[in-house]
Amino acid sequence: MHKLAVVIRREFIERVRTKWFLIGTLLGPVFMGLVIVMPIMLAERGGAERTVIVLDATTGGFGERVSAAVAQLPKVSVTRRTVPLEQIEETATDLAREVGTTPLDGILLLTDNTVEDGTAEYRGANVSSMTDMRMLEATLRATVFAERLRREGVDPGIVGRAQIRVDLATVKIRDGKVTGESGAASFAVAYAIWLLLYIAILLYGVQVLGAVVEEKASRIVEVLVSSLRPFELLAGKVIGVGAVGLLQMGIWLGTAKLLVDNRATVARMLGQSGEAAAAVGSFSMPPVPAATIVIALVYFLLGYFLYAAMFAAVAAMVNTEAEARQAQTPVVMLLVIPSLLMVGLLNNPDGQMAYTLSMVPFTSPIAMPVRWAAAPVSLGEVGTSIAILLVTILAITWVAGRIYRVGILAYGKKPGLRELVRWVKG
Amino acid sequence: MRDPVVEIQSVTKRYGDFAAVSDLSLMIPRGSVYGLLGPNGAGKTTTIRMIMSIIYPDEGKVALFGGRGDGKDQSHRIGYLPEERGLYKKMKVIDLLIFLAEIKGEPRAKARAGAQAWLERLGLGDWALKKADDLSKGMQQKVQFIATVLHEPELLILDEPFSGLDPVNTQVMKDTVVDLARRGTTILFSTHIMEQAERLCDAVCIIARGIKVVDGPLAEIKRQHGGSNLIVAAERSVALDRILSDTRLVKRADSYGNYAELELAGGAKPQDVLEMLVREGVSVTRFEIAEPTLHKIFIDLAGPQAQPAEVAHA
């Protein structure tokens, strides 16, 4: 027991002392700060005045109505210029030269065809801005819709009422109670959990791989196993690296909370105007229920143990770091596959696929917390999933331990499947 | 009564169909310097790993310090320098030494003081706070050796300790080993270099292809397996040549004209040769009964010519 503690301490201290730990720990919050501030900056940029020229070759006042509607959009200034249909292309080409050099962002080309078959063209510097384009398109669609109804003789008053916007507020119910979480917030939390768990399990699992290969490649391992049982060495390594992981995650989550709680101050410090900073401050962050955090942490630890054992077994089979990088692929794939299916899971957290992913032990460490955050999951299901995971961890650790025990002293060719079976049996 | 520190009884270790060690028995008395000798691939490292309980025998048993507990339980009483040795490259030398002593069960403070003292003794005092990676290969070898002896083991196991050492370190290592032996540490070391074994060991065990060829005190082995060897130097003469080619007396002669190394024929005694030389009037300048070298015994017993005998043995 004392020896195990010595191994854990070495693993922990030597890791925490490295430059990479320091850099990673510092860069984490900087990165998160950016994640928080970036949308603010983008919002700020989006808030800048857009200048748009509407080239109007329509008849019957449609161009005016479009201009008026576009002018209703926040922070857009519109100038309408009527041109004969045959000159519209020429004028647009002339104006295009001014885009970017003068305060002109884009040109909207309207003809009578716009109403007939719904085609219009926008040329501008901001076409890659999804938000701008979506707003412009929505405005245009609504105006064309109204125009067509008007031409069919429908009362403009009725048209106006027909276009009243619908806002669907989504509120999550968990265990029969209205939670106050919005649908978007649940989605955001689930997404964040997926990202965090995926990165954390992969990051620290691969560190165990590196640690085992280092000992083998530097040939210190034989000295170690003359004093320690291989399992003590393996367990010490996994626990030590895991402790570093928890510490780093703790620092990250702590700073993240600090940053979020003081986001207005942070925004101000980063040179945002007082008004924008206040807007950031009032932007509500999705609340994360304590149960979700507990579930995520439990699954992080279980998932880390499962993958660390597999990474250690892989590392014990190879001789060098380069070989390890190749050999780890199957294990990494086990982690990547549920990530690829994650979008489907988030879209339908009650579906058959989501259920299966949250039960299969290799995918459940990520899938179950994500499901939990996105949709109501019964505690019974969580219990079953954890039980399956625990049994798998025991089995995998046993197999990995036996491969490790033989592998750390076996140099040379990578073992084939038959030899691996002999290692495990032996 | 000699008190065995290591006792191996009829141990066999197989890897698949290949027997790395077959039915090996040996006994290492307390306080001795014991050589485990054999060509590469003879099973020396396998035997040592079984003593350390890094691997376990398929048959037979290994008893340490009179029988209680295996190599893992007794690891704090043993210092082990494997053939393939390394260090944590990124660790500071002193921290590394403390860690390696701590997993032997040494208290931290004692390990620190001991490590510093050993570093001073081997001329590495200024390097304690450097990373292992910054040390030269020779210095790393010294650090590995310190890690082996830091916890004051009763039994020191050195697997090919001199391989890869530069001459200066070889000398330092040899002096230290001799010093520890003088103070009562039992030493087991494996080598395929017979000259070292001959100078250092009290007793040896020669193995080849996993099978014991011979073991026991060095002097006894020499007596039993050395045969009779003579070195004769004399003035060149026809009589000398005649005597050297007399197959009743000489089995094999390695003659240089006026200098010859002889292996006597069965039943012939050195005195018979001397008598003949005197009778024939050869003017002898040197006549010496040579002790056989361990090297020669080793080649005779474990070399290529010895193969048929071993197969018969197995």
Structural overview:
- The complex is a heterodimer of chains A (426) and B (314).
- With 426 residues, chain A is of the alpha/beta class.
- Chain A contains 20 helices and six strands.
- Chain A has two domains: 48-160, 3-Layer(aba) Sandwich (Rossmann fold), CATH 3.40.50; 183-425, no CATH class.
- In chain A, the strands form two sheets. In chain A, strands 2-1-3-4 form a four-stranded mixed β-sheet, with helices on both faces.
- In chain A, a hairpin with a 2-residue loop joins strand 5 and strand 6.
- Helix content of chain B is 35%, strand content 28%.
- The longest helix of chain B is centred in the middle third of the chain and has 16 residues, at 167-182.
- The model of chain B is unreliable at 307-314 (pLDDT under 50).
- The chains are: A alpha/beta (426), B alpha/beta (314).
- Chain A binds chain B through residues 2-3, 6-7, 10, 14, 18, 214-215, 218-229, 409, 411, 422, and chain B through 16, 49, 52, 54-55, 71-72, 75-76, 78, 80-82, 84-91, 99-100, 102-105, 144, 147.
Task: Provide a short characterization of the protein structure.
The complex is a heterodimer of chains A (426) and B (314). Chain A is an alpha/beta fold. Chain A contains 20 helices and six strands.
Radius of gyration of chain B: 24 Å
Number of helices of chain B: 11
Strand order, largest beta sheet of chain A = 2-1-3-4
Low-confidence stretches of chain A at least 5 residues in length (pLDDT < 50)? none
Q: Name the average pLDDT of chain B.
A: 86
Largest interface: A-B, 24 and 29 residues
Strand-helix topology:
The complex is a heterodimer of chains A (426) and B (314).
Chain A: H1 2-16, H2 19-46, E1 50-56, H3 62-72, E2 76-82, H4 88-96, E3 106-110, H5 113-117, E4 121-124, H6 130-151, H7 156-162, E5 171-174, E6 177-182, H8 183-217, H9 221-227, H10 230-261, H11 263-269, H12 274-282, H13 290-317, H14 321-327, H15 329-340, H16 342-347, H17 352-357, H18 364-374, H19 379-407, H20 417-425
Parallel strand pairs in A: 1-2, 1-3
Antiparallel strand pairs in A: 3-4, 5-6
Chain B: E1 4-15, E2 18-29, E3 33-37, H1 44-51, E4 59-64, E5 78-81, H2 93-102, H3 108-121, H4 137-149, E6 155-159, H5 167-182, E7 186-191, H6 194-200, E8 203-208, E9 211-217, H7 218-225, E10 229-234, H8 238-244, E11 250-255, E12 259-264, H9 270-279, E13 284-290, H10 294-302, H11 307-313
Parallel strand pairs in B: 3-7, 3-8, 5-6, 6-7
Antiparallel strand pairs in B: 1-2, 1-4, 8-9, 10-12, 10-13, 11-12
